[in-house]
Design goal:
Number of strands: 6
Shape: globular
Distance between the termini: 19 Å
Structural class: alpha+beta
Order of helices and strands: EEEEEHHHEHHHH
Mean pLDDT: 85
Number of domains: 1
Strand order of the largest sheet: 1-6
């Protein structure tokens, strides 16, 4: 990922399109803050012989989408901006893309647009090391390891969260948390920290 000098416009992000799917990674999960604390949302996948990241299929045979929408409704109903983004996000999910790659790409584009980040997304054409290891985030962001990426990028500052009085500020949540709580001001939090 290459951030522009002003950190938001325009940036380039290379999406690894040639790796194999990694279990227990953020490729099919994220965390939100609910009334009972941090909660994981997970998209189930169909395990097959070919688990290259662009071929992994979403398992639509389970009611995960309904559970996810209910969890988001419960967690963010009282947030300042949830009602502004809810219908569009749910419509995106209801398209039911066949592949996890497509679902993730649609969700990423939604988040970039709504937070106001101008970013050129580019898919890799082969699995290779990047020019600079500091720009290679493929293995640095992993739910099994503590990450310091937000702190390293200077984005470690707290923002308003619905359940902050109960839990304090909880870092490491989905960008949806920032969007639902800060709305159009998300870009200010990202840009001026």
């Amino acid at each position: 990922m290459t951030l522009s000098p002003d950190r938001v416009s325009p940036s380039v992000a290379h999406l690894e399109a040639c790796e194999n799917y990694r279990k227990q990674s953020y490729r099919n999960r994220c965390y939100i803050l609910a009334g009972d604390g941090r909660q994981m949302l997970q998209v189930p996948v169909v395990h097959a012989e070919d688990m290259s990241i662009k071929n992994v299929r979403v398992d639509w045979s389970t009611p995960w989408l309904l559970r996810t929408e209910r969890a988001l409704d419960t967690a963010y109903y009282n947030s300042a901006y949830f009602e502004y983004y809810r219908d569009e996000l749910y419509a995106l999910l209801e398209e039911r893309p066949e592949r996890l790659w497509d679902l993730n790409l649609k969700t990423l584009r939604f988040l970039l647009e709504k937070t106001g980040i101008a970013c050129n997304l580019r898919e890799t054409s082969d699995f290779a090391a990047l020019d600079s290891a500091s720009d290679d985030y493929r293995f640095r962001i992993d739910p099994k390891h503590p990450d310091s990426i937000l702190r390293d990028l200077g984005l470690g500052k707290a923002y308003y969260q619905v359940f902050a009085e109960r839990f304090g500020f909880i870092p490491g949540l989905s960008a949806l948390d920032l969007l639902f709580n800060e709305g159009p001001d998300s870009i200010l939090w990202l840009k001026y920290i």
